Amino acid sequence: MGYIEKNIKDIREDFPILSRPGFIYLDSAATSQKPFVVLEKMDWVYKNLNANVHRGIYKIAEDITEEYERSRKEISGFINASESEIVFTRNTTESINLAAYMLLQKLKRGDRIVTTLLEHHSNFLPWKKIAKIAGLNLELVKVTSEALIDEEDFEKKIENAKVVAFTHVSNVAGTIVDVKRLARKAKERGAFVLIDGAQATPHMKVDVSNLAVDFYVFSGHKMLGPTGIGVLYGKKDLLEELEPPFTGGEMVKEVHKDGQSWNDVPWKFEPGTPNYVGSIGLAEAVRYIKKIGIDQIETYEKKLSEYLLENVGNIKGLRYAGPKNNRAALLAFEIKGVHPHDVAAYLDMKGIAVRSGWHCAQPLQEELGFSNGTTRASLYFYNTFSEIDKLRTALEELVNIV
Amino acid sequence: MGYIEKNIKDIREDFPILSRPGFIYLDSAATSQKPFVVLEKMDWVYKNLNANVHRGIYKIAEDITEEYERSRKEISGFINASESEIVFTRNTTESINLAAYMLLQKLKRGDRIVTTLLEHHSNFLPWKKIAKIAGLNLELVKVTSEALIDEEDFEKKIENAKVVAFTHVSNVAGTIVDVKRLARKAKERGAFVLIDGAQATPHMKVDVSNLAVDFYVFSGHKMLGPTGIGVLYGKKDLLEELEPPFTGGEMVKEVHKDGQSWNDVPWKFEPGTPNYVGSIGLAEAVRYIKKIGIDQIETYEKKLSEYLLENVGNIKGLRYAGPKNNRAALLAFEIKGVHPHDVAAYLDMKGIAVRSGWHCAQPLQEELGFSNGTTRASLYFYNTFSEIDKLRTALEELVNIV
Amino acid sequence: MSYFFYENVMDHYKNPRNKGKPDSYDTEYGDSNPTCGDNVKIYIKIEANRIKKIGFEGNGCALSMASASLMTEMVDGESLDNALKISEKDLMNELGIKELGPNRIKCVALPVKVLKMAIISYISKQNS
Amino acid sequence: MSYFFYENVMDHYKNPRNKGKPDSYDTEYGDSNPTCGDNVKIYIKIEANRIKKIGFEGNGCALSMASASLMTEMVDGESLDNALKISEKDLMNELGIKELGPNRIKCVALPVKVLKMAIISYISKQNS
Ligand SMILES: Cc1ncc(COP(=O)(O)O)c(C=O)c1O
Ligand SMILES: Cc1ncc(COP(=O)(O)O)c(C=O)c1O
Q: Which residue from C minimizes the CA distance to A375?
């Protein structure tokens, strides 16, 4: 038995909402719950240390600045980047948009951007947007019926591509992409590579120094952190070279009527008062994850994932999206004859919180033949095997009713 | 005696940090302190209602969505807008950048944008940026030696301008601009008008329905709200017409491989998981302000402002920026022979928190002849006359030392 | 109790009335619900400012489909003025649902919205 | 106690050493501190890999100006290798300051950074 299995009761007690009787939260791919330590940290900062960062000379302004930059350090360490490579954003979506606008200066009419059919809307629409702005061509790599990236098609499409963007883990199919290998291929073709890590960083060790990527993006709220904080990791040289699409206070050294000099990276990309309390909260979340151990989380969730597939994946009339193994601990499925929303509504009645619909990945679901979307149960390390049992029981009841 | 004077002791007790012995916070123009109710509300939401908004069918997902949209309603009511006109952003700076990129589709090479020398960098650099992108001409309206907008120059420059952007209240000079009159003039010339309300909404009644503006922007953190939440008010018709610069999940109705339809306003402009807890926190801040009464705040701060000018503005060797009357409750100044940072460092030693430097308005300060920047004391309704006395005493001591 | 078992809902869901596109119609309107992707399209044949025939197409959860089906039944034969007065609340009453969360209420609101848009676009075409 | 009254700081601030641009120099470098707008520019004349003459220009708070002044005194005549070893800590020790917040420490760090960049740019020009 691993660390989490042994301590699951204590771990669950760290999360206020999980103690609610009869409540089973299976929607962590949408957003995670938050441990007390994260909430307490933010509350403490507001009560004791609140001042605007960066420009104050008085005591609490200095302390909050230090705490803010320490949070950047904590988060950079978590993915093995350097502090100057961590740009704070609102969420994954903003990170991708920002990277796309930053890359515009490197792209010219007719250049090719490649993403895949596996993507969340947030890793598709921004590329489409800049393609339209600058007259670029956007192509989508196909996926197999198991929602794996079609590698033959990938090889073909990345040839001469200027930007290649894909997800680390699919939020619908649970596919875990071999980012190390595929990013290397794209990089070898000379493309800028962006990886959407929204569903990866909460669940597995990510080491950007070991990946051939220019950008790696993720959201704080999916990994025990507060809302309103996301990360854009960018390679230092590239960040230094690229122009900031958004400008304003805090990101400049000097401003005159007819000239200015940008601040150093990463601040150059953070105009205006940052969500410093959000960053500090996310750093606390990272510390909590490190205390549990990201390897422990990965191991435990692997078991959860297998158990989920074995016990829910085989319910009569149920069809799920994605591969048969090596998947994230989530299952998006449809049940014959019942609309996905009705499945979710039924489960809600049983106290089980799941999500239903397109999960912001409509093209993928349409491709896989889920024409009404799916219902999705997604787990985190605070979930248990017995919660999966309860999900199964409820679904079987439902199947018997309809 | 007004409501605030009568209840100042109780009011101060609502703010955790203000009870610290010997601590005087005079940096509210940078960021305000937060009352308990705002912190408690956010904590409560995380502990009891945390789920991703908009797409969940289960109970807490519905509740949080309702709470989130109620927060939009609260905030829209505060400035007398309609809910669909309130776009949540990170801060004022992001609001302005977003508006600038949104307006790009309406502008063509050679068009004129007008802003003023009174502006915070955040209402100058984004316009400069889009001017560069699209080959537009950016012009700055002059200011008088008292840091009032030079109306003659204003009239001249807004002629044929396509965009006119200016501040409601200056964060350095304390100038309160007659937005109603000037916006009307710009609007009559057919320009799109944006007002930077970062220093206005915390302190005075703003009624956008009564102003000839297309956009009005402000930050939550300066008005008792949390970090990471800002507002872009935009006229509904215009929001409906303009394209979203940033795209992704949550802001679309349908997405297919080769087409999509945007969501309705305002959601069209809010890609990705929003900072919903931040919005809810800001709504709680607005409720608190309404409880005190924004008119009460305005009246009380007027007295503070006059007292500040009379007691600090006349210290020997001190020169301040801005007008002699009708000013916001802040004072940016230099003291002969002492660098502004050294003034701030000295005051810090005395427990008084003020800011020093450029206050993100370097062109204005250079124009006014403050070649090293200034030290700024800025007040909010939780400050007192006796705190101003202490500031005066400390500054006089300093003047006698050097 | 969830709406899931309301008899009316399941009845209309499993046996929708007025489903399909009529052979001829004077106005049509379709929209979808971003929250869940439910979509509804409505076709109306109008005579003397009365709904002569109404049909719907659509795809969605039991609640939205049942609402659309029930609504077509309720407005069939009505004057346009009366049809414009129908509300989510009326449908919920008829279906026997007391309360719905904000996301679910959109499932009921969608057909109502689509109906109104179809009628309004007809009226404004007449007037111009 | 704030650094404000440290005698050394005020001495160097009021009577800066090596202030001004020398008549001739082999390398120069300037930078500013976005936190406060302090700026420092350093000019160095070099002979046989030793600092023969050093001058600074700048504008800023007492702390940054005193640090720049003191630093030029400390490295004057030193080998480039030795000059590259100077740190914020050394300046703080010499000024008699025990501790500084992160924003204030940048005031001391700025001249150190500028010095190093000036030397490094000289060395890399020599090597190329
Ligand atoms: C007048 C004015 N505009 C804009 C801003 C920028 O606000 P934020 O940093 O919250 O984006 C400020 C805050 O310093 C301000 O005072
Ligand atoms: C794979 C993936 N990418 C991007 C996102 C968008 O994240 P956010 O809404 O935090 O911007 C999500 C979250 O739903 C996701 O699962």
A: C36
